[in-house]
Amino acid sequence: MKLKKVSMRIHELKSGMIVAEEIKSGNIVLVSEGVELTDDLIKRLKDRYFEYKIMVYSEDDYEDENIIINRIKTVEEVKRSFDEFSNNVEEIFESMDGRIKVGITEIRNFANRVEKELNSPSAVIKNIVLYGSDNDCIFKHSVNVAALSSILGKWIGFDEKEIKFLTYAAILHDFGKTKIDKNILYKPGFLTTKEKEIIREHPVISYNFVKEIPYLHNSVTYGILMHHERLDGSGYPLGVKGDKIHPFAKIIAIADTFDAVNSNRTYKKREDPFAALETIQKESLGRLDYEYCKIFIEHIINYYVGENILLDTDKVCKIIQIHINDLSRPLLLDEGEFIDLRKERDLQIKNLVL
């Protein structure tokens, strides 16, 4: 039977598959062409968090169809899990109202459940990109931010302990919003100066509650308190700059911004799936950490490549290449013909499709 090359993600690989093109990290060859994949080799690739698509040999189209079906199913399963996690976060936040004391064990157990879901990061990222956090700016948003923060922390190179504390901080970062008047929090129009000041109190409210959790590491509380600080000093509540902002807060700020732009809110509708990337890139020039943003964008665009998008003409095309200096105008493939959106300026992307 004739072999052909198939593009697959790390979590789709199976022992016995043959690598069709060498796997590289920069100029370093990690796995040579023609090497048979083993469970140990796949595990090492996963551990290093290389989530770029890998070319392997496949025998027929039937296998390709199964891969696509399995990937869709995985995204749907992740969505169901994240919906359940959102309810869990709501329960945790409710128990932090002063009547019932939350211990570090509850936070740790929940973070571990989130981490297990991240064994399939491509499905997690695609779920977040596809659905955002709907209109839920607290609970589902916290789950998405926790997942993205943990993934980015791994891309940056944090160790297991740091990832654990980072995930705690991301889960709890917006607890303070539960103590803000919902008429202000979900106001559809412009906020008054006073209402903006009230909204900006949520990091301090979160910090004051969370610091009472026994045995919680200080890095967690710093990440929570500073997640709206910006490198140029324009953030809040402290107005600190640069290196005075905790690394956890810098990471959560990126994840928080991405999910907020990529989600519906009472005051705005979500934009196309590339708007969040462009916002991160723009904010990296003085407000968000440049190196962290660069790592985030360079990695996450690999999850867009190979996926289908819907144009405003209702035509479905496949993303072939994303240009780092023009993120919202990728190169597309439509029934064997290329469409370069950098040249076809009249065409607009509506959304990603399964």
TrEMBL record:
Residues 116-312 form the HD-GYP domain. InterPro entries: HD/PDEase_dom (IPR003607), HD_GYP_dom (IPR037522). This is HD-GYP domain-containing protein.
